[in-house]
Specification:
By secondary structure, the chain is of the alpha+beta class. It has 2 domains: 115 residues, CBS-domain (Roll); 98 residues, 2-Layer Sandwich (Alpha-Beta Plaits), CATH 3.30.70.260. It is built from 9 helices and 9 strands. The strands form 3 sheets. It has a 4-stranded antiparallel beta sheet. Strands 3-4-5 form a 3-stranded mixed beta sheet. Strands 1-2 form a two-stranded antiparallel ribbon. Helix 3 links the parallel strand 3 and strand 4. The longest helix has 11 residues. The chain is elongated and about 65 Å long. The two termini are 16 Å apart. It comes from Roseivirga thermotolerans. This is Acetoin utilization protein.
Length: 221
Protein backbone atom coordinates (compact mmCIF):
# COMPACT_ATOMS: atom_id res chain seq x y z
CA UNK A 1 0.00 0.00 0.00
CA UNK A 2 1.36 3.41 -0.97
CA UNK A 3 0.85 6.91 0.42
CA UNK A 4 -1.72 7.94 -2.21
CA UNK A 5 -3.98 5.07 -1.11
CA UNK A 6 -4.03 6.35 2.48
CA UNK A 7 -4.93 10.01 1.89
CA UNK A 8 -7.64 11.18 4.26
CA UNK A 9 -9.92 13.27 2.05
CA UNK A 10 -11.92 14.44 5.08
CA UNK A 11 -9.03 16.69 6.14
CA UNK A 12 -9.07 19.91 4.06
CA UNK A 13 -6.10 22.26 3.62
CA UNK A 14 -6.12 25.86 4.77
CA UNK A 15 -5.00 28.82 2.67
CA UNK A 16 -2.58 31.54 3.83
CA UNK A 17 -5.45 34.04 3.67
CA UNK A 18 -7.56 32.05 6.16
CA UNK A 19 -7.33 33.19 9.78
CA UNK A 20 -6.54 31.44 13.04
CA UNK A 21 -10.20 31.34 14.10
CA UNK A 22 -11.13 29.31 11.02
CA UNK A 23 -8.25 26.94 11.69
CA UNK A 24 -9.34 26.39 15.30
CA UNK A 25 -12.96 25.73 14.28
CA UNK A 26 -11.90 23.19 11.66
CA UNK A 27 -9.55 21.48 14.10
CA UNK A 28 -12.33 21.16 16.67
CA UNK A 29 -14.72 19.73 14.08
CA UNK A 30 -12.14 17.25 12.79
CA UNK A 31 -10.75 16.45 16.25
CA UNK A 32 -7.17 17.16 15.28
CA UNK A 33 -4.63 19.71 16.49
CA UNK A 34 -2.99 20.50 13.15
CA UNK A 35 -3.93 21.16 9.54
CA UNK A 36 -1.99 21.52 6.28
CA UNK A 37 -1.58 24.91 4.62
CA UNK A 38 -1.24 25.20 0.84
CA UNK A 39 -0.94 27.99 -1.70
CA UNK A 40 -1.67 27.39 -5.38
CA UNK A 41 -1.22 23.67 -4.92
CA UNK A 42 2.09 24.02 -3.04
CA UNK A 43 2.43 22.63 0.47
CA UNK A 44 3.73 25.29 2.88
CA UNK A 45 3.66 23.40 6.18
CA UNK A 46 1.30 22.67 9.07
CA UNK A 47 -0.47 25.09 11.40
CA UNK A 48 -1.16 23.72 14.87
CA UNK A 49 -3.55 24.66 17.61
CA UNK A 50 -0.60 25.35 19.92
CA UNK A 51 0.91 27.86 17.48
CA UNK A 52 -2.34 29.83 17.29
CA UNK A 53 -3.08 29.76 21.03
CA UNK A 54 0.47 30.71 22.01
CA UNK A 55 0.34 33.71 19.68
CA UNK A 56 -2.95 34.76 21.34
CA UNK A 57 -4.26 36.53 18.24
CA UNK A 58 -6.57 34.20 16.28
CA UNK A 59 -7.67 37.06 14.03
CA UNK A 60 -4.32 36.93 12.22
CA UNK A 61 -4.07 35.42 8.77
CA UNK A 62 -2.40 32.00 8.57
CA UNK A 63 0.39 33.62 6.52
CA UNK A 64 1.42 35.60 9.61
CA UNK A 65 2.06 32.53 11.74
CA UNK A 66 5.24 30.48 11.71
CA UNK A 67 4.26 27.18 10.14
CA UNK A 68 5.93 23.92 11.12
CA UNK A 69 7.11 20.67 9.54
CA UNK A 70 7.30 21.90 5.94
CA UNK A 71 9.58 18.93 5.24
CA UNK A 72 7.14 16.35 6.60
CA UNK A 73 6.18 15.04 3.17
CA UNK A 74 6.23 11.86 1.10
CA UNK A 75 5.59 11.28 -2.57
CA UNK A 76 2.41 9.57 -3.70
CA UNK A 77 4.16 6.30 -4.66
CA UNK A 78 6.08 5.84 -1.39
CA UNK A 79 5.30 2.89 0.88
CA UNK A 80 3.30 3.41 4.07
CA UNK A 81 6.42 2.50 6.07
CA UNK A 82 7.89 5.76 4.73
CA UNK A 83 4.82 7.59 6.04
CA UNK A 84 5.37 6.15 9.53
CA UNK A 85 9.07 7.00 9.45
CA UNK A 86 8.39 10.58 8.36
CA UNK A 87 5.73 11.08 11.05
CA UNK A 88 8.16 9.72 13.64
CA UNK A 89 11.04 11.91 12.44
CA UNK A 90 8.92 15.05 12.77
CA UNK A 91 6.82 13.84 15.73
CA UNK A 92 3.79 14.79 13.66
CA UNK A 93 0.23 13.48 13.53
CA UNK A 94 0.07 14.03 9.77
CA UNK A 95 2.24 13.65 6.71
CA UNK A 96 1.63 15.60 3.51
CA UNK A 97 1.45 13.64 0.24
CA UNK A 98 2.82 15.22 -2.92
CA UNK A 99 2.45 14.15 -6.53
CA UNK A 100 5.50 13.27 -8.61
CA UNK A 101 5.34 16.85 -9.92
CA UNK A 102 5.43 18.22 -6.37
CA UNK A 103 1.81 19.37 -6.04
CA UNK A 104 -0.16 18.80 -2.84
CA UNK A 105 -2.53 15.82 -2.95
CA UNK A 106 -3.66 15.57 0.66
CA UNK A 107 -2.51 14.30 4.03
CA UNK A 108 -2.22 10.94 5.73
CA UNK A 109 -2.95 10.80 9.45
CA UNK A 110 -0.82 8.43 11.50
CA UNK A 111 -4.05 6.76 12.65
CA UNK A 112 -4.93 6.07 9.01
CA UNK A 113 -1.58 4.35 8.58
CA UNK A 114 -2.03 2.22 11.69
CA UNK A 115 -5.47 1.16 10.46
CA UNK A 116 -3.95 0.19 7.12
CA UNK A 117 -1.36 -1.98 8.84
CA UNK A 118 -3.97 -3.49 11.14
CA UNK A 119 -6.09 -4.49 8.13
CA UNK A 120 -3.18 -6.12 6.32
CA UNK A 121 -3.05 -9.89 5.90
CA UNK A 122 0.06 -10.17 8.06
CA UNK A 123 -1.78 -8.67 11.04
CA UNK A 124 -5.25 -10.13 10.46
CA UNK A 125 -4.16 -13.72 9.88
CA UNK A 126 -3.83 -15.84 12.99
CA UNK A 127 -0.33 -16.52 14.15
CA UNK A 128 2.40 -15.81 16.65
CA UNK A 129 5.06 -13.11 16.78
CA UNK A 130 8.66 -13.89 17.60
CA UNK A 131 11.36 -11.31 18.28
CA UNK A 132 14.96 -12.39 17.68
CA UNK A 133 18.16 -10.64 18.66
CA UNK A 134 20.70 -11.15 15.87
CA UNK A 135 24.19 -9.81 15.31
CA UNK A 136 24.22 -7.50 12.27
CA UNK A 137 26.98 -9.54 10.62
CA UNK A 138 25.06 -12.80 11.09
CA UNK A 139 21.64 -11.63 9.93
CA UNK A 140 20.22 -13.68 7.06
CA UNK A 141 16.51 -13.65 6.33
CA UNK A 142 16.98 -16.61 4.00
CA UNK A 143 18.51 -18.65 6.83
CA UNK A 144 15.76 -17.69 9.31
CA UNK A 145 13.01 -18.45 6.79
CA UNK A 146 14.61 -21.81 6.00
CA UNK A 147 14.54 -22.80 9.68
CA UNK A 148 10.91 -21.68 10.09
CA UNK A 149 9.80 -23.47 6.93
CA UNK A 150 11.70 -26.55 8.08
CA UNK A 151 9.15 -26.73 10.91
CA UNK A 152 6.24 -26.65 8.41
CA UNK A 153 5.44 -22.98 9.06
CA UNK A 154 5.63 -19.76 7.05
CA UNK A 155 6.91 -16.26 7.75
CA UNK A 156 4.05 -13.85 7.00
CA UNK A 157 6.01 -10.66 7.60
CA UNK A 158 9.35 -9.40 8.90
CA UNK A 159 10.35 -6.14 10.59
CA UNK A 160 13.99 -5.31 11.36
CA UNK A 161 15.29 -2.57 13.67
CA UNK A 162 18.52 -1.73 15.46
CA UNK A 163 18.67 -2.78 19.09
CA UNK A 164 18.54 0.30 21.32
CA UNK A 165 21.12 -1.06 23.76
CA UNK A 166 23.59 -2.28 21.11
CA UNK A 167 23.65 -0.85 17.57
CA UNK A 168 25.62 -3.87 16.33
CA UNK A 169 22.55 -6.05 16.95
CA UNK A 170 19.29 -6.35 15.02
CA UNK A 171 15.85 -6.99 16.51
CA UNK A 172 14.08 -9.17 13.98
CA UNK A 173 10.31 -9.40 14.44
CA UNK A 174 8.64 -12.34 12.68
CA UNK A 175 4.93 -12.96 12.19
CA UNK A 176 4.45 -16.74 11.88
CA UNK A 177 1.35 -18.41 10.45
CA UNK A 178 1.00 -20.69 13.49
CA UNK A 179 -0.08 -19.91 17.05
CA UNK A 180 1.91 -22.75 18.62
CA UNK A 181 5.57 -22.05 17.92
CA UNK A 182 7.46 -23.96 20.61
CA UNK A 183 9.00 -26.24 17.98
CA UNK A 184 10.04 -23.23 15.88
CA UNK A 185 11.61 -21.54 18.90
CA UNK A 186 13.54 -24.73 19.72
CA UNK A 187 14.83 -24.98 16.15
CA UNK A 188 15.96 -21.35 16.06
CA UNK A 189 17.67 -21.66 19.43
CA UNK A 190 19.50 -24.79 18.29
CA UNK A 191 21.09 -22.68 15.57
CA UNK A 192 22.15 -19.98 17.99
CA UNK A 193 19.32 -17.46 17.62
CA UNK A 194 18.33 -15.64 20.80
CA UNK A 195 14.55 -15.27 21.27
CA UNK A 196 13.80 -12.12 23.29
CA UNK A 197 10.06 -11.90 22.69
CA UNK A 198 7.25 -14.35 22.07
CA UNK A 199 3.63 -13.34 21.62
CA UNK A 200 0.93 -15.86 20.83
CA UNK A 201 -2.36 -14.54 19.49
CA UNK A 202 -4.50 -17.18 21.16
CA UNK A 203 -3.25 -15.99 24.55
CA UNK A 204 -3.83 -12.29 23.90
CA UNK A 205 -7.43 -12.38 22.70
CA UNK A 206 -8.80 -12.33 26.24
CA UNK A 207 -7.46 -8.87 26.96
CA UNK A 208 -7.90 -5.77 24.77
CA UNK A 209 -4.90 -3.97 26.27
CA UNK A 210 -2.66 -6.92 25.52
CA UNK A 211 -3.90 -6.91 21.92
CA UNK A 212 -3.04 -3.23 21.60
CA UNK A 213 0.41 -3.78 23.12
CA UNK A 214 0.98 -6.65 20.68
CA UNK A 215 0.22 -4.37 17.72
CA UNK A 216 2.54 -1.68 19.07
CA UNK A 217 5.37 -4.21 19.42
CA UNK A 218 4.72 -5.37 15.86
CA UNK A 219 4.88 -1.77 14.63
CA UNK A 220 8.28 -1.19 16.26
CA UNK A 221 10.04 -1.05 12.86
Amino acid sequence: MVAADLINHMIPPLKPTDDGNKAIVWMEELRTNQLPVIEKGRFLGFISEDIILEDNDPQKAISEYDLEDAGCVVLEHQHFYDVIRMASDFDSQMVAVLSSAGSFMGVVGIEDTIRAIASSTAVQDQGAILVLLVNYRDYSLAEISRLVEGENARVLSVAVSRDIADSSMFRVTLKINQTEVSHIVASLERFGYKIIGRFQEEESKSNEKERFDLLMKYLNI
